[in-house]
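Posting this for the archive.
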Amino acid sequence: MNIKSTISLIIAAAAAPAVVAGPLGYAICQTGCNALVVSCYAGAGFTFGVALPVAPAVIVACNAGLGTCMAACAVVAFSPTL
């Protein structure tokens, strides 16, 4: 890429309006989080969504990871993107 192309690309990127990812970005992010927690449960030998009388520590850890992931999705949903 030559210098004129690089400068043109930088100017175009700087002029692009910022948009918010919105509900679709949030939904895609949550789907990824849910896929991760399902695999976390499966790796521990459990099924996600099945109620247990007592949650083993590994399930508590999976749930904590899900909460962290979902919180990150909320940030993604309202962060500006180009």
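The CA atoms of residues 9 and 67 lie 38 Å apart. Strands lie at 19-20, 80-81.
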